[in-house]
């Protein structure tokens, strides 16, 4: 009889892709929190780089990479050709084949329902800008823990928009999560910064409000994006390209509106100065954000909720350890209790329904 053994899971160098993608996502989340905070507080506010420019650069790079990957995945119907030239015709760099791929890709990207991606695209741009505000006013560990409220907002929008049913354990985990975040915020608001430069001008309450708003936009955008994916066909990388395209206009808006207005006219800022004050840390922040957007696609495809919960918990621990080592933050009992509560709540919420 023929063997019916299941196919082995996708792997790289013998390691399953789901583990590679989740560990990468955990490290990326921790590194992003630390890099974003450091890049914002390492210089005086007057010498800080433009957060809006960083968001625009992220969308441009993420869109370009997604477009390149989508281009390689396009199926082109080949005409019958002699065997001697079939390899040449099937090469993506062969001019007729290249043009055919471009036409097919263009039809996929600008399909009639592509406008549905405009709503999550705008929300994601707002979320990314709010993250910079939060990172400028909260230490990396506090920001990372508080940002886990996006689990709560995502669950709420899933119940409202997707009509999902949550078990009693998940509701308990969400309440536990809110309590843990509240404990961490008590610690953040009760401590004062003793750092120099821009660190002394951090406003924890402003950072907390930015995180709350970012969690709401993240939850709504994520649930709406899930609705689009479930109710229509299309490659995930094509959807990423559409997201980046619709993100360009809202990403450009704050840059254009930040220009001076002499005599009632709006002066568009010079794009030669768009990336002024961009340091190595600023570009590293942009690169880490781009990596997160690409790794998330792999996590959606290969990982389950339990593994994603583990990756989230690992990222919190890593960002906390990095913050202690790099920024000399004080380890308080209040923070440890709050962070532990958030970790337990994240683990409980990721458990499968019985």
From TrEMBL:
Organism whose genome encodes this protein: Vararia minispora EC-137
Protein name: Nucleotide-sugar transporter
């Amino acid at each position: 009889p023929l063997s019916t053994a299941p196919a082995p899971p996708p792997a790289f160098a013998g390691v399953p892709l789901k583990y590679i993608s989740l560990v990468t996502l955990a490290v990326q989340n921790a590194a992003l929190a630390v890099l974003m905070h450091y890049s914002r507080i390492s210089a005086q506010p007057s010498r800080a780089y433009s957060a809006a420019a960083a968001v625009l650069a992220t969308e441009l790079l993420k869109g370009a990479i997604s477009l390149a990957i989508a281009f390689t995945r396009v199926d082109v119907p080949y005409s019958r050709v002699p065997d001697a030239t079939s390899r040449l015709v099937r090469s993506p760099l062969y001019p007729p084949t290249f043009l055919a791929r471009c036409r097919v890709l263009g039809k996929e990207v600008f399909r009639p329902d592509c406008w549905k991606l405009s709503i999550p695209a705008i929300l994601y741009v707002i979320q990314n800008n709010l993250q910079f505000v939060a990172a400028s006013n909260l230490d990396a560990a506090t920001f990372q823990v508080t940002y886990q409220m996006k689990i709560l907002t995502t669950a709420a929008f899933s119940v409202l928009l997707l009509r999902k049913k949550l078990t009693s354990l998940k509701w308990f985990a969400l309440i536990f999560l809110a309590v843990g975040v509240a404990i961490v915020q008590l610690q953040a608001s009760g401590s004062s910064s003793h750092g120099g430069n821009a660190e002394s001008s951090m406003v924890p309450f402003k950072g907390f409000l930015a995180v709350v708003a970012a969690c709401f936009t993240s939850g709504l955008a994520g649930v709406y994006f899930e609705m689009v994916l479930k109710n229509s066909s299309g490659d995930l990388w094509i959807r990423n390209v559409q997201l980046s395209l619709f993100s360009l206009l809202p990403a450009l808006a704050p840059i254009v509106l930040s220009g001076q207005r002499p005599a009632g006219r709006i002066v568009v800022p010079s794009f030669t100065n768009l990336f002024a004050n961009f340091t190595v840390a600023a570009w590293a922040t942009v690169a880490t954000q781009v990596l997160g957007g690409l790794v998330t696609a792999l996590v959606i495809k290969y990982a389950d909720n339990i593994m994603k919960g583990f990756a989230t918990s690992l990222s919190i621990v890593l960002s906390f350890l990095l913050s202690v080592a790099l920024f000399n933050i004080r380890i308080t009992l209040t923070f440890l209790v709050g962070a532990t509560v958030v970790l337990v709540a994240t683990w409980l919420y990721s458990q499968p329904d019985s």
